[in-house]
Design brief:
387 residues; alpha/beta; Rossmann fold; 2 domains; seven-stranded mixed sheet; 12 helices; binds uridine-5'-diphosphate; isomerase; UDP-GALP_mutase; UDP-GalPyranose_mutase_C; flavoprotein
């Protein structure tokens, strides 16, 4: 009989959260086995080189943060370029700069000064009588007025979330800057860039010297798991090898972990239609949003522009937002009141689960950007091992 290989942690999910945890655990002398159901590491930040271009397979990822510690941390694993995200929005035959700034307002109303823009917006807001915005629609209207809302927010948001703007939380729109200067930088953060050579290398470096199994399903493994009197689990991997571990870091969907016993949480998913085109430059920008309801996709990403690529060909992805259902990849938690309340039930269950830690966008059911996910992973490390 062969002895089961012994680990301190089973890390479920080889994305940014799981890999950060495993990397920090290893530094502290703990052994992790990292498993992922996909056939590759890096979760949704996975990038793959095609035609010399790093393709963001699961959608555009732009690293941005105001936290110097987080910026320094991620820079250990890759060198970042000076990419600044400046998407443009297409509405019918009109084209606007994002986020909402003087370039947008100038184009919308043929005005020049901040005072003129402010007057135009104030005039539109005055007609609304919204004192305390209760949902995304009221928030957007009372921030930007009717024109910006109708042309640049309403259609895009309803496609992205598959819900009426009245049924969405206001915070989603507060992510975007709104400013009265001519500045198309999508983020307000101090630090921003794309890792030269893609994101996968970051996770590869984090996982160096750590046992990783891809195409390994946690739920199949769990069926074989037996807990002994000391609290150690022994389970069987898909190739029959036995492993044992004391604790689990779980970065999958928290509701699924508990067999959705309180009912399923909602997620949004994205379907990509990716094409290689025999031309150098298709749209002149990495990100072009299509804000009208009638265009079925939300945006087109032209991957080469994240790294200022000069390859002879180009690769574009059209993004179609869909409701998540079992069997497809979840991308975004839908953090409305109903789901948040349901999540709280699962979170209480999770807290009672002594030997399992839940992390990441899916495990903590939070619309984390990469910097927040990384910060949450480091918090989790501190909690687990002490500072
Ligand atoms: N949004 C919008 N119009 C746009 C881009 C974004 O109304 O052209 C809104 C929309 O509600 C979206 C939110 O802003 O869900 C956040 O956008 P962000 O670009 O941060 O989304 P992500 O990149 O995370 O998908």
């Amino acid at each position: 009989m062969t002895m089961a290989k012994k680990y301190d942690y089973l890390v479920v999910g080889a994305g940014l959260f799981g890999a950060t945890f495993a990397y920090e655990a290893k530094k502290r002398g703990r052994d992790c086995l990292v498993i992922d159901k996909r056939n590759h590491i890096a979760g949704n930040i996975y990038t793959k080189e095609e035609e010399g271009i790093n393709v963001h397979i699961y959608g555009a990822h732009i690293f941005h943060t105001s936290n110097r510690e987080i910026w320094d941390y991620i820079n250990q694993f890759a060198e970042f370029n000076n990419y600044i995200n400046s998407p443009v929005a297409v509405y019918k035959d009109e084209l606007y700069n994002l986020p909402f700034n003087m370039n947008t307002f100038s184009k919308m109303w043929n005005i020049k000064t901040p005072a003129e823009a402010r007057a135009k917006i104030d005039e539109q807001i005055a007609q609304l009588n919204i004192t305390d915005p209760k949902n995304l629609e009221e928030q957007a209207l009372s921030l930007a007025g009717r024109d910006v809302y109708e042309k640049l927010i309403k259609g895009y948001t309803e496609k992205q979330w598959g819900r009426d703007c009245k049924d969405l939380p206001a915070f989603i729109i507060k992510r975007l800057p709104f400013r009265f200067i001519y500045d198309n930088n999508y983020f307000n953060d101090r630090f921003q860039g794309i890792p030269m050579g893609g994101y996968t290398q970051i996770i590869e470096k984090m996982l160096e010297g750590i046992d990783v199994r891809t195409s390994e399903d946690f739920y199949d493994l769990r069926k074989t798991a037996v807990k002994d009197a000391d609290g150690t689990y022994t389970a069987r991997l898909s190739d029959g090898a036995e492993v044992s571990y004391d604790r689990i870091l779980f970065t999958g969907q928290i509701d699924e972990y508990f067999d959705s016993k309180f009912g399923p949480l909602e997620y949004r998913s994205v379907r990509f239609e990716t094409e290689t085109l025999d031309m150098e430059n298709y749209q002149g920008n990495a990100v072009v949003n299509y804000t009208e309801r009638e265009v079925p996709y939300t945006r087109i990403i032209e991957h080469k522009h994240f790294e200022f690529g000069k390859q002879p060909k180009t690769i574009i992805s059209r993004e179609y937002s869909t409701e998540w259902k079992p069997g497809i990849e979840p991308y975004y938690p839908v953090n409305n009141d109903r789901n948040n309340a349901l999540y709280e039930k699962y979170a209480r269950e999770a807290a009672a689960e002594g030997d399992v830690i839940f992390g990441g966008r899916l495990g903590q059911y939070k619309y984390y950007d990469m910097d927040k996910d990384l910060a949450a992973a480091l918090d989790c490390v501190n909690e687990e091992f002490g500072e």
